[in-house]
Design brief:
It contains 14 helices and 16 strands. It is an alpha+beta fold. The longest helix has 20 residues, at 324-343. The protein starts with 10 loop residues before the first strand and ends in an 8-residue tail after the last helix. The relative contact order is 0.16.
């Protein structure tokens, strides 16, 4: 990935300066959001101080498994992606669209419109930085310009953190989204921890980042320290044990609609939707209308939804995708294939959350490898006739185009 460093080169910041950086962000009017330890996990929430960061904590990841572990050092960002992503702050799980009240001559409607808070995201992993940029394409452009998402996104200050210790389920290197942060950040940190020393190599990615960094003490990084940090990030790519064939995903998914592998994964999938809730790019929603008992007040709310929900594709007469097979195929085909037609890229960033938070440990890298192996087998077309109903294009792209049912 291309590194986006402002002129002047990298700087070195001591870890003891983190409280000053946090205070500078707060003084500038930002609510600082970052990782912290809570409820036996590393979650994202507002940080009251830099001391809330998960110093000395790491995680153990596996398909269907997540566990905190105590590190032997004081690293603040020595962990991988947790159960939440930054999308919850830009695309909330539940959001009021409008409210209306009865008046003498009819009703009056009020659009929900609270001022967007100024948010500083402190500790965005490169995969999550790419996920934010993907959601920008989906929810912040074209007809969505001026949307609540756009209003929230416009005021976000991003401090990215490059990865030096990928988790067991990470595969961002094969998706081109890490472990080095690309463009789109204001500041980027690479953590360096050794016996008796704890510091960060800092790259500046925007004028706003340079202005913020000017309020805390830093020093020019010498070639040795800069080289150590760059090498640690580069080495992280080689530590990843999972990968995706990103260059063939689009065509593979386009020609795998009848693959027998869908039956195999359907026999394990619970259709619970955990993968879509944990995914940093899934965006689908539904709307709910509610009224009070008097009928004098009504509200419309937008809430997250999932293509694994049986009712998600419901039309008059029943759901379009009635089987777990068709729903899993819809999700994976859209995420890795038809997303390209709609938004110009894959919808997967290789964070591995869907693997970790699947209750039965379904691994999409394993599923893609199986689909690829099946596609390469000689013989007649793949077995498994498509289900009656919508066309292939509808089954693959379906109602994901609008993000609503």
């Amino acid at each position: 990935m291309e590194k986006a460093t402002m002129p002047g080169g990298a700087l070195l910041m001591d870890a003891a300066v983190l409280p000053q950086l946090h205070s500078a962000l707060r003084s500038a009017g930002y609510r600082v959001i970052g990782p912290t330890v809570r409820d036996d996990a590393i979650i994202l929430c507002e940080l009251e101080s830099a001391g809330d960061l998960p110093f000395g904590w790491g995680v153990e990841l596996a398909p269907g498994g997540y566990r905190l572990r105590q590190r032997t050092d004081s690293a603040a960002f020595g962990h991988s992606a947790g159960p939440q992503s930054w999308k919850q702050f830009l695309h909330p799980p539940r959001e009021k669209v409008w409210s209306a009240r009865r008046v003498d001559d009819g009703f009056e409607a009020d659009a929900a419109g609270e001022p967007a808070p100024r948010l500083a995201f402190f500790g965005v992993r490169p995969c999550d930085l790419r996920a934010i940029q993907i959601q920008d394409r989906v929810l912040g452009r074209g007809s969505h310009a001026g949307s609540p998402y756009s209003n929230r996104r416009g005021g976000v200050f991003i401090i990215a953190v490059n990865c030096t210790e990928p988790g067991a389920t990470c595969f961002c290197a094969s998706m081109g989204s890490g472990p080095q942060a690309g463009s789109g950040y204001d500041l980027s940190l690479t953590e360096l921890v050794s016996e008796g020393a704890h510091s960060f190599l800092v790259d500046v990615g925007s004028p706003a980042g340079a202005e913020m960094l000017a309020s805390v003490p830093t020093a020019a990084a010498d070639d040795s320290m800069a080289g150590q940090a760059r090498s640690a990030v580069a080495d992280a790519a080689g530590m990843m044990t999972r990968s995706m064939p990103a260059d063939v995903l689009h065509d593979l998914m386009a020609h795998s609609d009848n693959a027998a592998r869908w039956d195999d994964v359907a026999s394990r999938c619970l259709s619970c939707g955990n993968c879509t809730m944990a995914c940093p790019t899934c965006f689908c929603t539904t709307v709910e209308d509610v009224t009070d008992l008097s009928g004098d007040h009504a509200e419309r709310w937008q809430t997250w939804d999932s293509c694994f929900d049986l009712d998600f594709s419901y039309i008059h007469g029943g759901p379009v995708r009635s089987s777990p097979r068709s729903r899993y195929r819809q999700w994976l085909t859209h995420k890795l294939g038809t997303w390209h037609e709609q938004f110009g890229s894959s919808g997967c960033v290789g964070c591995g959350r869907c693997i970790v938070w699947c209750p039965v440990g379904i691994d999409l890298t394993e599923e893609v490898a199986a689909l690829q192996a099946e596609a390469q087998q000689p013989g007649p077309p793949l077995a498994g006739a498509p289900e009656a109903g919508p066309s292939q294009a509808q089954a693959a792209g379906g109602d994901a185009g609008s993000g609503q049912r």
